[in-house]
Design goal:
This protein is an all-alpha fold and 114 residues long. It has a domain at 30-81: Winged helix-like DNA-binding domain superfamily/Winged helix DNA-binding domain (Arc Repressor Mutant, subunit A, Orthogonal Bundle). The protein is 48% helix and 0% strand. The chain is built from six helices and no strands. α5 (58-65) crosses α6. The longest helix is centred in the first third of the chain and has 14 residues, at 2-15.
């Protein structure tokens, strides 16, 4: 059966030369590949929530912004692409790689007086 599948596959491949679209095959930044489609209108708000909250987790973004899991996960992934948060660490919140805006402290910690 595998030999027959291989023969059919080779036959189909021999009928026509493969045509690859450059935009798909080139190694590109994900943002460039998807253009404006990738930019979520609440991205800046999600970034603020993460930086002010002092942790980056999908569930926190879901709760604070009232969005579903898929959208919240995409926002966190976009922050990783932008170098704001670290990679996925299982059940733990992602590490924040940039400084919080001045005047904000993680939730549960008092703000320092300047």
């Amino acid at each position: 059966q595998d030999a027959e599948i291989e023969k059919i596959t080779q036959f189909i491949k021999s009928q026509r030369k493969a045509v690859y679209h450059e935009a798909v095959t080139q190694s590109q930044d994900k943002r460039q590949a998807f253009g404006d489609f990738k930019r979520d209108e609440i991205y800046d708000e999600a970034k603020r929530v993460v930086l002010e909250g002092g942790q980056a987790s999908v569930s926190m973004v879901q709760r604070r912004l009232g969005v579903g899991y898929t959208r919240a996960a995409r926002l966190i992934d976009m922050m990783e692409e932008d170098g704001i948060v670290g990679p996925y660490r299982g059940a733990k919140p992602r590490e924040i790689l940039v400084e919080r805006p001045s005047g904000s402290a993680p939730e549960g910690e008092p703000k320092e007086n300047a």
